[in-house]
Amino acid sequence: MTVQRDYTSLPSLWKRDESAPRQLAFRARARDEWAYWREALYNKLTELVGGFPVDRPPLEASVLETEDAPDFRLEKVAFQSEPGLYVPCYVLKPRHVQPPYRPVIALHGHGSGGVSHLLGRIQNEALRDEEEASIRAYNYDYAAQLARHGFLVFAPELRGFGERLETWPNMVTRMAGDPVWYANSCRALFFNAVLLGKTVVGLRVWDVMRTIDYIRCRAEPMVQGLGCMGLSGGGMITLYAAALDARITVAIISGYFGSFRTSIMPVIHCECNYVPGLLRYAEMADIASLIAPRPLLIENGTEDPIFPVEAAESAWEELRRVYELLGMPERLEKDIFLGGHRFSGNKAFAWLDRWL
Hints:
9 strands; alpha/beta; globular; 17% strand
């Protein structure tokens, strides 16, 4: 009689995840317990993503280009994130809006086009039809939508995309036969970062923090609040950045919420999603709980194949308990919309209007 045995490892790893209690899962029942828990998870999460520099170099910001659009003025700027490392960022300044302006950071998702599609721009004329179809399908030009709605928008290019693709010759040689992953350079970034005790998540969050530094040095009068929103990979960085930088006063996470067990673990994802050791301490709902009691809107499509809506609803219920404990349930909202992996916008602009 032949005995059937399973020689694969993933089922064993998943069982380990399901059976191991999170060391820093949210269990607080009183405000003082919440404060203690929040500090502990904040410190551990900062450590897990690789930490952040203590010293911030001068921004050395400069305007590289300007362009007039019907509804806003577009500036392309660059500022220093780390010594010798600069971030390109687009600033969309709405017309016919009186200051003080309401600033919002718009973060793009995963893809070689980077920030261009947030502006409604076509990156490759030879692929115009495909790019236009992609922008429509994902409702992806939300930086331009925000500006047309009257917000002062800052859209930085995240590491590994668009103009920030890596050009390390050895990487090109080794990855030339892997065009899907070479469309961005997350793999090379992740492998190199992990060897140095860093993560791609932490590096991108740092650039968002430096974007906030840049926003604060702008000359325009602005309200004290600051919004941050993003779809998919942009939702991921919005999640971590809002959890780790309280200067973000209102957040919208689109197409990146549920649980690691139901989304990141069983689906083939880019390396940039992973933070080594994270699941020993926290799940997505725990990370999002660090945002409380600041206003947070979660968007999720009913047909999203990457982030199942059932898991998003379950995680939202976990998150709701935190806001209720703090006596501010009205500061948490969800937009469960009919559709797939895309930006909804059904409640997003009104949410920002309300809290900025």
